[in-house]
């Protein structure tokens, strides 16, 4: 696996991170541009809080986990200062987006803006211990817990009582967030949250009859036969399985690692497009037509999360099956998403695997899934190699 | 054109309307099923108010404009009674969706639910003069006018003052609605509305520099260089041009007909996919990557509205160019969207023109654009033929 580890490392440090350092910094108003064309040219200046937070997290994490490169720390602080200054309303909720100057564009209707802000300031505090960064992290985290039962608040359009559903994304992110923030949160809160989110992700959203993981279930955890209840998002579920594996490793729970592995394989098999290769974006558990018109597209993050998941399974279990699968997904992903000409990767392919949108970043794609995935795979496989040498 | 007129008539009466009569009636709880698989099988029972209203309108309009077939009137009343009983909140706002039994699922955040409800009850009243149908029409219409400056109300997520935009869809629909409801609304209101909506559609959303029609502009009518401000929806603009032509015909304004024709051609040329044929769904006026992942798909309604528009141009101007264009769009549309095996038409094709979702109806596709388009083209071309015989 040494060859792979090196390949992911070089791609991260020579092809991907330089792209964001060069093109995404807004030196005039602060924060980052994320709407970047294939060659890095800025095509829109709006600033989406998900992506601002994720890029802060990414550069702080590189500084923490790769090397103390001052350019990376500067870049993280550059984004965090913009977020700190303009990102929140008076109650500390994070706006969804700002214009280039930092004026709010879209209200704080989306709790994931808060999740990525907490991740950002938590990671930055690890490498740059300013009290206000810790304070923002903790306050944002407390606010997330307070809002979690009705995350959309007054923007929730569901009529109460007819079909009350809960969504997979929040427990899944909390799974990851609890580890990301444990240096700043009371141990008892972290421990409870870990137990609770593992239960949600592994029991509540699990559809026993098929072995698949659902995106939405009734509040009592049962299956809901509706568009929302039937929807599957293979990439999302696979990503959640590596979050769970990180927790399982910490808890030294080999049974949980095994269960997460089985489910990740199941989602990969179910989501794999036998006709054109790659993993589909959305599916319906009863094979009915999904509502999402983009259901058959191939998205970068789905494939990167799958590679991370398989690398972790291989590290934790040394299962040859993980390696076999890793190679197949690796070949598809590198062949279709990577852009050797301008750096960074494409994000959106059609079903056939051709680039549908040539952008490198936009409203939802920023400096996150590609570099995080490359870093995770590199350091995970490096560990396998190191273990083996020992 | 006689051959085309007959073709559209036969398709409507023998292939499309029988499909909806057979499969969409919910005889148990009332209203219509619109989520229908290729062969008509119901795959979901949710009831979306847009599509309930549109189907009522469609059957009432067939009864009015084609023949007094009692089965059509029964079908229209069947849907209207369900809507009347379950469709509104206490303030008379129309919910976005209900479950099969009629319990509200999604709050009345969408003013187009109200627009299609008004159209439905207005058309039904024409052929079945129950006072309560007139009353519902008028009250709903008044409510639309009251809500039009802030159509999303409390569900509006835009932060006020940073980038206040207005959207093309509402003036466009009001253009059509003002004619649909003129038998029930004061003449002075209708006349003012016609003048105002023609101004909005033809002046405010028109982008002079390119000759194209925008989906969103600043509240003062100027161009806004953002994702929302740059977006083009060729099918939407082309549909609006035939609404305007209906008004222009009524006003006997040949200059307006000519302007609408020029703009419709421009949008068709701009939206036409030179690589694979068909008209693209979304574009960016500056050729930047659009936000909509489904931007390059080919949608049924876009093509039907284009055929209606071209038929009307031909009727009003006898321009050979309209006929030439009609034949090209006709050939593409009938070859790719029509389903000779099971009746009705496919709705969603990928860029290459292959069926991406094999459904005949769903959350957004119901008994509306295909039958309305076929009816409009048939009766428009029939009129050309009749005029020529005279």
UniProtKB/TrEMBL annotation, chains A, B:
Which key words are in the record? Answer: Isomerase
Pfam short name (any one): GlcNAc_2-epim
Molecular function GO terms recorded: isomerase activity
Task: Tell me where on the tree of life, at the top rank, the source sits.
Answer: Bacteria
Span of the signal peptide: none
Q: Which GO terms describe its biological process?
A: carbohydrate metabolic process
Q: Which InterPro entries match?
A: 6-hairpin_glycosidase_sf (IPR008928), 6hp_glycosidase-like_sf (IPR012341), AGE/CE (IPR010819), AGE_dom (IPR034116)
Cross-referenced SUPFAM superfamilies: Six-hairpin glycosidases
Query: In which family does this protein belong, per the annotation?
Result: Belongs to the N-acylglucosamine 2-epimerase family.
Name of protein = N-acylglucosamine 2-epimerase
What organism is the protein native to? Answer: Mangrovivirga cuniculi
